[in-house]
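Exercise 7.
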Amino acid sequence: MKKELLIAIPAYNEEKNIAPVIESLLALPIMEKAEILVVNDGSKDNTLGVLKNYDINVISHIYNLGYGSALKTAYKFAIRNEYDYLIQIDADGQHDPCNIENVYDALTSKLPSDVVIGSRFLQGSKTFKTGFAKKFVIWFFNTMIKLFTHCKITDPTSGLQGLNRKAFTFYGTYNNFVTDFPDANMVIQMLLNDFTVKEVPAIMHERVMGRSMHSGLKPIMYLIKMFISSIIVVLRTHYKKTSRKKRAIKDQKALARAQKDPVTLK
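Solution. The predicted structure, written as tokens, is:
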């Protein structure tokens, strides 16, 4: 029987973390309607060897292409295999498996959303302490999203997200997903393109092994890059919308002229 949900996990050098994540997911009742895909993003350790112990989907990049490219691969896989929903989680064990059910419920509720974000900052969520630099980055992104879209998103940097087919198909289309820095800029893009975005409380744990890609002073550099990327996304989205509107007006005028003077159709 075809399953409707794909749980996508980008992984890079996660040999010490990935096994508990996979085993926790396989124990969930929701696996009756879900399959797992791990995108091994050119890991140099034994991540691929660990994954061979499980009956799951695995795609390996020959080289490390980055987190965003691993997600893009998952979106294309979901499109090709006609899944209805996709939930993306991190491979380091920070996202508690219990979040899967909550995100799925929000995607499939009577008032479903196109994008569901697992937030560390809503009532009912549980998380670990974050440093000042990361807190400042999150505050900055919150402000930026509110400025550009007039919507409030409490946790725009969360990697725990659910997408319906409309959303991941949009991401999988050429030039609609920024693979270098897919974060708050993508939230802005989706809101500006009239996708519905909802947050649900999430339970997150501190990474046990390895280092986060946003450790140390990296959040500050990431903030600068993300700000520039978000400006580009806003300008590009505005340009596309303006172009579509102009084409629609042009087509309406052409149709009106043709109806007025049928000879012009010959």
